[in-house]
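An example makes the point: we print one protein in full, the chain in one-letter code, the fold tokenised, without further comment:
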Amino acid sequence: MSTIDTICSSHIEVSSSRRTDTLFGGDYSDERESLLKRLWGYYCELDARRRGRLALGEMSDWQLKDIGVSQKDAREESAVPFWR
């Protein structure tokens, strides 16, 4: 588990235990926490794609050859936006 995962999970646990906001007489803290977890997961996935594509764009020819990717394919993939 990375440091950021530890920080984020402890932050969610603390904030969810402190808050008992109600809306129309119901406690929706579980739904809110679930939504935040899904949004955080989606953000992490997009960020991982972005970092991978940036790294691919910065690799030298011999590094690309070592992993079996052509220079043309690497440049095309690194130009793809992070949301795709």
In short: The first helix runs from residue 3 to 18. The mean pLDDT is 77. The radius of gyration is 20 Å.
